Amino acid sequence: MSGYSALSAGYDILNSETDYESWADFIVEVFKKYGNNIESVLDLGCGTGAMTFALHDRGFDMTGVDLSIDMLSVAREECYDREITDILWLLQDMRSFELYGTVNACVCCLDGINHLTGKGDTKKCFATVHNYLDPDGLFVFDVNTPHKFEHFYGNNDYILEDEGVTVCWQNDYNKEKGICDFYLSVFEETDNGLWQRSDEVVRERCYSREELVGALEAAGFEVMGFFGDFGFGAPSEDCDRWYIVAKCKK
Hints:
Oligomer: single chain
Order of helices and strands: HHEHEHEEHEHEEEEHEE
Structural class: alpha/beta
CATH architecture of the largest domain: 3-Layer(aba) Sandwich
Number of domains: 2
Strand content: 25-35%
């Protein structure tokens, strides 16, 4: 879960096609459909804060938690640039974080849950989320699907480029273990015109629907919805991402 220090410079490039605005609108609709007067929201595994900012712009009291100080540094710089002073950023592990109080909802976007690769990690994470949610609070998260692991990740290679940053991305997916290792090389142009290379290995686990539902129910959640798109549609066999909504029962 520690492979994002060098990647912080290229993280937003990797996710450049992500429509955060539509995603945030979907989350707001989830809150309206399943929640009750949601005001405070935890963004778990917030990364550089793209979703944190999108939900903040929609009027929510936001807290961002991430294990990477480099990612949070990018988020803090964005706060300074936008003159935002009311987002709380916490450098903590998503399996065992501590908050100052409970929140109305928790979101975990862009396959943060897939980064829980160790034995019992989802159990620890879901139990901690449950602990800091208000009764009937919502937990909204997504995961990459088995279809995506097999057909998009697999053993494929990618090169992504933007001004001043190039990311080389090699995948190694072990279907039997359900583990995909991403070998990432980030080339960042420095002020003197030279390029600096940083290497990271990031790992994700492929979860089945049954595993996720079982882990949520064991942690005290009631699964409210399992969707394949922002229109609350049922997942198709070849969809790349599942969106899960669970309610905290206490």
